[in-house]
């Protein structure tokens, strides 16, 4: 297939693009390469896919990978660009779209709310419009476990109420699900929303716990442990996430019994790990004890997440199987090599 992957310079987008290419698909990657975090990390991911820095930094220019036998092209483009995005769809004739581009981060949404509306709401509407107008059969898009907000029922199930988000980021992701439902109903194409649960691993985002803890410990600085460590997360290794996303893109929704046009799945590790146990595992892998700064809960954060992934197992034979210790070891190995 020919697949558009938005957010291709991002953490999950890079891994999904790499997996799709390895499976023989043709991938067009899109990213605006904003400065929410270090753009050098984003450009380094693209270089792994064969896109050199100079080419990646040009706006609205489609560039082919220089790597032999790699079927990857990249364009630097923002989803909010209402004129250039349709031109890309018209020229490329995609078989499917995987929308992973978004303004990420719960805490940053308290500081810069406009960025979330521009990218996650306006940008997502533009994607939906292009899917409608250019005959896209299947749109797979990133939602988030944050939509569960103040939900206290554990594990989280897609049938649970998600009407009480506690961050603007979560509210924009909930709005994406509602918008996708509307477009599937009105225009008859398949949409699949994926509620990601705390993804970690090599090439991860610098604003996430795994990265922050590792960097602080190696630099001899204290780590910030919120809610005094009384938190649990469904930590999910990137390879398990990537496998799930690619399976969904490769399997036609119409082949799944009683599968509606609009569908939401949890995608996680199907398990909950205590934050303090996660930190212990990082310390063991680094062989360094961390100085822990215990702090109160942050605004917009939640105490516990845990994904019920039964539907994904049933429909796509999804079985996450990476132990936390193995995933942490892989991240730290990458981190040491990348930062020398």
Output the keywords.
340 residues; alpha/beta; Rossmann fold; eight-stranded mixed sheet; two-stranded parallel sheet; 11 helices; 17% strand; UDP-glucuronate 4-epimerase; NAD
Question: Which SSEs are present, and which pair or pack?
Answer:
Blueprint: E1 2-6, H1 11-22, E2 26-31, H2 39-48, H3 53-56, E3 62-64, E4 72-76, H4 84-92, E5 96-99, H5 113-133, E6 138-144, H6 168-187, E7 190-196, E8 199-200, H7 209-218, E9 223-225, E10 232-233, E11 236-237, H8 238-250, E12 262-267, E13 273-274, H9 275-286, E14 292-294, H10 310-316, H11 324-338
Parallel strand pairs: 1-2, 1-5, 2-4, 5-6, 6-7, 7-12, 8-11, 9-14
Antiparallel strand pairs: 3-4, 10-13
Helix pairs in contact: 1-8, 5-6, 7-9, 9-11
């Amino acid at each position: 297939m020919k697949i558009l992957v938005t957010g291709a310079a991002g953490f999950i987008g890079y891994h999904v693009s790499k997996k799709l290419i390895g499976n023989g698909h043709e991938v067009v990657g899109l990213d605006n390469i904003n400065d929410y975090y270090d753009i050098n990390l984003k450009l380094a991911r693209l270089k792994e896919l064969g896109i050199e820095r100079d080419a990646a930094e040009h706006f609205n220019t489609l560039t082919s990978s220089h790597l032999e036998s790699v079927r990857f092209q990249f364009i630097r483009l923002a989803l909010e660009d209402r004129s250039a995005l349709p031109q890309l769809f018209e020229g490329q004739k995609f078989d499917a779209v995987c929308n992973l581009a978004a303004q990420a981060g719960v805490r940053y949404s308290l500081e810069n709310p406009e960025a979330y509306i521009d990218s996650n709401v306006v940008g997502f509407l533009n994607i939906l419009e292009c899917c409608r107008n250019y005959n896209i059969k299947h749109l797979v898009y990133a939602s988030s476990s944050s939509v569960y907000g103040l939900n206290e029922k554990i594990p989280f199930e897609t049938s649970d109420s998600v009407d009480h988000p506690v961050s603007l980021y979560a509210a924009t992701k909930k709005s994406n699900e509602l918008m996708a439902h509307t477009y599937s109903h009105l225009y008859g194409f398949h949409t699949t929303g994926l509620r990601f649960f705390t993804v970690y691993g090599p090439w991860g985002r610098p604003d996430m716990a795994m990265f922050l803890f590792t960097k602080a410990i190696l630099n001899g600085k204290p780590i910030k442990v919120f809610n005094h460590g009384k938190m649990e997360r469904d930590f999910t290794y990137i390879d398990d996430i990537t496998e799930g996303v690619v399976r969904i893109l490769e399997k036609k929704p119409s082949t799944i019994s009683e599968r509606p046009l609009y569908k939401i799945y949890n995608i996680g590790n199907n398990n909950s790990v205590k934050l303090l146990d996660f930190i212990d595992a990082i310390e063991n892998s680094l062989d360094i004890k961390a100085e822990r700064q215990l702090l109160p809960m942050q605004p917009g954060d939640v105490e516990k997440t845990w994904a019920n992934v039964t539907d994904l197992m049933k429909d796509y034979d999804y079985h996450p199987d990476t132990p936390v210790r193995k995933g942490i070891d892989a991240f730290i190995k990458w981190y040491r090599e990348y930062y020398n």
